[in-house]
Structure formats: structure tokens, C-alpha cells
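Internal QA ticket QA-208
Title: Verify multi-chain structure generation after dependency bump
Assignee: T.L.

Test input:
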Amino acid sequence: MNLLRAEFTKFRSVPGWVRGVVMAALLILLFPVTGLGGGPGDEPSPVTGPDGQPVNNSYSFVHRPLTGDGQITVAVSKLSSEQDGPWAKAGLMVRAGSRYAAIMVTGGHGVRMQHDYLYDKAGPAVRWLRLTRSGGTVTGEASADGSRWTVVDKVQLSGPAQAGLFVACPSRIRGIAIADDTATAVFSRPELAGAWPVADWAGSVVSSDAGFTMTGRGDLGPATRSDVPVGVAVGDLLFGTFPALIVIVVVGTLMVTTEYRYGVIRLSLSAGTGRVRVLLAKAAVLAGATFAAALLASALAVPLWLRVVRGLGAYVFPAGPLALLRAEVGTAAVLAITAVLALSVGLILRRSATAVTTVVVVTVLPYLLALTPFLPPSVAQWMTRVTPAAAFAVQQTLTRYPQVDSVYTPANGYYPLAPWAGLAVLCGYTAVALAVAAVLLRRRDV
Amino acid sequence: MRAEWTKLRTTPGAAWLLLVTVIVTVALSAAVCAAATTCGTKVLLSGVYAGQAPVAVLGVLVVSGEYSTGLIHTTLAAVPSRATVMAAKALVVAVVVAVFGTAMSLVGLAEGLELPAAARAVTYLVLIAVLSVGVAAVVHDSAVAIGSVLGLLYLPPILAPLVANPRVVEELAPMTAGLPVLTAWSIGALLVGTLRLR
Amino acid sequence: MTSIEVAELRKRYGGTTALDGMTFTARPGRVTGFVGPNGAGKSTTMRIILGLQTADAGHALVCGQPYRSLRCPLRSLGSLLDASALHPARSGRNHLLWLAQTQGLGTRRVDEVIEQVGLASVSRRTAGGYSLGMRQRLGIAAALLGDPPTIMLDEPFNGMDPEGIVWLRGFLRSLAEQGRAVLVSSHLMSELQDMAEHVVVVGRGRVIADSNVAELIAAVSGDRVRMRTSAPEAVAAALTAAGGQVVEADGLVVRRLAAEQIVAVLTANGLPFSELAPHRATLEEAYLDLTGDAVEYRGAPA
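Actual output:
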């Protein structure tokens, strides 16, 4: 405790360090100013689904009204797409207003039952599909032969609806290349059972006695960053983290290298509280001050800039309060832990310039390389998975959907690791550096 | 000029930094090359992204190393002309980096790197070193200087996609803009550094 | 036991021997001078005492314990190793404050020691602007923080103005009179004159002399006589013939002849003389005598 107070006195009594931490906080708070002025442009806001998430909602649909209960059964005899899209979809759908439930055959992922854009459940890889509405419940079933059926999922969906056959085909993603794709599906003639009102099939379809042939493009599902490039993710509002990080790295390094340069380390160590404890107290004070300043800044910055950006009419990807809190606390934690990393590396190397460079190169550079367009995505993934730059994952507020192929790159705001796992990678590096620093401090003559 | 060369030669860190430059550049290029399907010039040169960091450290230390030890007073007492001191430092660092860069790019040439690209890479590293010398003379403290240089290099490409006018940032930032703009940065830093040298 | 005790310390750096069996004790109630030429191993010894460096062999005890095992060491040993060990942007007062806080002491004690060393007017200025003399005073204040029974200062007179040197001598004497053990290193014996009661003279990593100052001077003074004369050549010739040894130094210094013998010889030869008195060697002379062959870096004679 005495040691903590002493280290805090040391920290606060060098005006440059305090200014550095304040500057880092201000960078987080104010840096988004540089993003203003371009304006959101004339791009329309994306379509949102029943949950408020942005969605893709384009597909081919051959349908007829369904007011009450009813059942529709079909066999998908062929599904192919120009680009061999694994998520090309053909199947049955019941749609009521903005909600829907659908069961489908896919290009490479077997039978799926999906509803309301976000939800997805896998079934067997078969060809026969059936949707049954009974009461308010829609049941999706799949079958290999049309006689023995397996239930895939059940969805609550009542009210007047349109039901029928649909085909969709999202763009094909290879690395960061996106290619438009079109799917063609051949269905058997759908068998209807139950109280279907008298009506004709509506929609674009080539009909024969054997069945229907349909083509379709687009997708039914959650929209990702590459679908809504003008949309703002909350992580974008914290991009002042990068300049702040460099400032904090400089402060953290100086806190220890100046002790060596001016010989103050001899005083610190001869005050006799145990060398490792001196290091830990220093790390605690630095991390505490950084965390407090950065948390204040990010907790102010996120709501403030969200208001500003929304006020300008830009679309903001929705994020729950917990995700926002995680991004804010996580940003402060990234800065605080990186500061301790800088402190440890500074103690190991005892030279300011080399220590600052080392820490910046292992934290900021991998992120930069991950953004570089000419590098393959595997490199980008690797850079943000095994280096301390993985920690920026705590700023991810976008959701990654397994049922949607997209450009899930750090540049788009998607990280390969889960937020806390990313932070844990940084913690791991810092713990190792701190341990090495402690051992060296114990052993070395000063 | 000879004196500056002697100072650099007798500082043990310099040789290490150049060695690190070579290792980092070659290793990163090789790693990226292995991961990429095609091994084009751009991919080969991605190693320069990391390799420029030790070069920047070298440039910074040539100046700020003298500030931290107080040697700068001796230097300025021996050669009172600030412009001469700065020019000598910049020139020595530039020549050393150029020689090492050339040696390094010979390896690259053997691996299929094109000559103009290799020449650009060497020039780039030289200019980065000179920029670092200038920045270090402006801010004196080595940690702040290297932080500024690395910030100047690495931050614009990260931040550009998010600011209002990405083109403007990319065309002005030292790392992305191209050699003429980088030359302007380096000369500007040297000039301001000369005025701030004391 | 309130003393600093060093026994058989040995330390090598690569091929050079820094300490070669250094042994001495600084006892309470007196100022112990720790003198030797630069490179004799004084600073290394002090760093080992403080546990900053490890000795290859031997041990150093403060108040009977190794320094690194003391709980609040600044309450046992106050030390000043390097007065320049300051962050230049931190004020002198804050420098003392953090040091005090490591020992659980507060601002009151800090202000007391600042007053004691006479830095009250500048204590809130940043240390980067301090003169070397002010830094020495700040370092001494730091050594006093824990009100320790033993005090160890490395070259505290460096950079001090004459007024400061007089003050520091008196101050250190008063600390010793309070019963503390005070160890003060210097490469200039003259700085310790009139202050140290006891000196440990070292050279090449070992102790050359460890003795009371009065005894040391007496041993070197021997049977010397200082005199003045208007005919130095004739006097020198006559005294040498009588078996004496004559050196010219601010008059003449004669060895191997007692004062009565000199008077007899000169009177017999009818030579003029005045101010005949036994010569009292300075501490400096004693030191030069002792360290003559222990100096590592000696200027070539001009």
C-alpha cells in the first residue's frame, strides 16, 4: 500500500506523463471529429427485420395466400448456381408481414429451417421439404423419400400469410472478393393439403407438368458490414484508440526507462520493499490511471458520438447495452494492459526508443497489416489472432452469422477471436513480458 | 561528417538495429509470401512495413541518444553550425541505411523482386531514416520521437477509412503517399529539427 | 548494533577486479571517511551495502542485517549514492515524497528534512533546474528521511560551493554527535579534514589503512621540522651533511633531525633561520603517502 502511494506520487509528479494519459483520453473522446463532414450521403438506410437488425430481403417467391392452417410439400430435384454458392437456397416459405418461416435446401449446407432473417437451424442433407401451419405454429420437416419425415424446427407464425416456393442466392465470397451469383432450382409440383383459399400461383416461374423451375438471387438473412458499407459500427466510434495507444505506450515505457536513465531506479530499489513489488506497484498505478482515464473517455465518447452520428442521419448497426459496455470497458482495458506491456518491455530493454518500437510494432502493426488490401485474408486473420492486436476484438459489436458468408475481416469490424478471447491474448503477452521483467529485475545489478 | 560516422560506428546499437531491419523485413516478406497464393512485388515488400521500424529507431537514436547523455552539448560546442550537424547526421544515417537496404534488396532481387521496386524500397527506407532524424531533433526525447514517427507512419492507413476524406489522408501520409510526398516530409522534419536543435 | 559492517567483499566485472577483500566497519558516534582514488571500489562497495549489486563473496551488514532483509530500510540506513538520480520534471519535494511514502512516512517528515538541508525555498521547483549543490542537499535530505541511525554518503561534497562544504562538514559532525554512524566517501582527503575522526583508505579494491585520523597524521608526520631561512642552499647543504633530509616546500621541511639538533648545526655554521617548528602533516599528505602506489589512473609527470 505504501508502495502504491509512492508509485502514484511518482506518476502524478511528472507533468508529461499525466498530460500523456489525459491526451490519450482526449484522443479517444475527440478523434471521431475527423470522421465528420463527409456526411452520410444519399444511401438509403438498410431494410431492418423484426428484431431491428439490418437484413437482406431479396429473393424469388412463387406464392398464394394462406389464411388458416395448411400444408405444402415439395421435392427440390435440382439446385445449382453460377458460382457454386454454398448458401444458394431453394425451398418453402410462409410469410406474414415482415415475418417469415422457411425450410430450404442449400448449395452446400444441407437442409436448413430459417425464420425472421436471424435464426437458422440445420437439418439432414435431403431433398424433400414440407411446411405445415397448424394453429399458430409452423413446422418444418425434411425427408429423403417423401414418406418418412423428420421435424427440423417449429416457429410461431399466425395471421394471413403468403406461402409458396422461393429461391435466393447470396453473392459468392472468395477471400475478400465478392461475385454476384444466381441460382436455378427445379421443384416438383407442390402438393397442398388443408384449407388453402382458391387462388393461382403468383410470381415469376416456368411451370410444366413435372414441376416449377425458378431462378433467384439476393438473400434472406442478416445483413453484414459488406452489405451496408455506409453503416457505422460502434467500434468505428472508438478509432481514437490507435493514436491513444501510441501515446500510452510512450508514457508506460518512459515510466521505467527514465528511472534507468536518471538512476532513480537505484533509489526505488534501495527503498527496500522487494524489487518485484516495486514493478507490480508501478504496473498497478500505470494500469489504474490509464484504465480510469480511458474508461471515462470511452464511456463518454460512445453515447456522444452515437447521438451525433444518428443526428447526421447515418445508419448505425444496432448493438445491445451490454455490447456497448463491453466495447467501452474493453477499450480501457486494452489501453491499460498495453501500458503494462510497454512498462515490462521498457524494463527488459531499458531503452526508450527500442521499447516503444517493439510494443507499437507488435500491437498496431499487425492490425495495420490486417487492413492491408493486398494481403490474403488468412494473413489478416492470423495477424489478429496470435499477436497482441487480437485484443481489438473487444471493440467488435457486429455479430458474425454462421449461416451467412461475408467478408468477416478486421477491416470490416469482424475479428477472428471472441472479444474476451482477443483481450486474453494481449493479457497473455503482457503476463509473459511482466514475468520476464520481474526475473530480470531480481537478477540484474543496477 | 567523418565525426558523425565515427559516432554511429562506435555505437553498438546501430549494427543490431540494421540487422533487425534485415531479419524483420525478410522474415515478414517470406511469411506473407508463404501465406499468399501469388508472390508479387507488393507482397514481397510488405516486410518493409515492419522493417522500417528499426530504421526509424536508428534515425531517432542518432539524435536523441545525444540528448539523453548530454553529448549534444559537446557536439554543438565542436560544430556550432546547427545546419552542418543536422546535415551530417542525416547524410551518415542515409548512407548507412542505403548500403544495408541495397544489400538486403539483392536478396529480394534473387527472389524475383523487380529492380525499380527494390530501388523504391531502398529509397523509402532512407527517407524514413532521415525523417526520424528530423523528428528526433524536433522533440529531443527518444520515446516521444519514435512514438511520433511510428504514429505518423502507421496511423494514417488505419484511420483513413474512417475519416471524412480518406483520399486526402492517403495522399498526405508519409507511408501511403509515395516517395515525393515522403521526401517533402523528411526535408520538412529536417528543417524544423535544425531550428529546434540546441 | 548501529553500524555498517563490510567483510571480505569481492567482486569482479569481466576481467577486472573491482573489490578484492574489502573489510571495514563504520561505528556509531563518529564520521568515518571512506577515501581512495577514483576506481578504488568505493561506489561498488556502497552499492553492495545497499543490495543493488551482489558481491561474488563476502557480506555487508547494516545494523547487523543484510540491507535487503530490512523491512523499512530507510529507517535503518540513509544513503546518497548519486545526487543526479532525479527525474528532471519532478519537483524536489515530490521526489522526497514518493521516497517517504515507500517507508510509510508522510509530507510532514518531508517538509522537516527539506528545512534541515535548507531547500525550503526551491523544493517545489522541478529538479531539472537544480544546481549540483542543490541536488546534493536534496540527496542528503533523502538520506535523512527515515531518521536512520546509520548514514552513508557517496561524494557528497561534489559540486558544492565553499559555503555548502562548511555547512555539510558541520552538519555531518552533528549527525555523528547524535550517535549515528556516518560513512562519507571522497576521493579528496582534504574534504574530510576537520570532520572525519576515522578514515578507511582504499585502493584497488582493498583497504590500505583503517585508522584514527590523529594516529594516521602522527604516523606520517614523524620527525619533520619546518623552518624558514634566507639562505636555503647553504642550510640544506649543512643539514644534509649532518645526516638530515631536506625538502623545499613553502620554506624547508627537514626529516631525520630533531629540532634541537638543527638549531645546533645551524648555529655552529652561523646560518640564519627563523620559524623553526615541528611539522604537522595534513591528512592530504598522509593520504598521498598511503595511496602512492595504489592509484590506478595517474597523470604522466609534466
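Spot checks passed. Chain B has a mean pLDDT of 78.
Status: verified.
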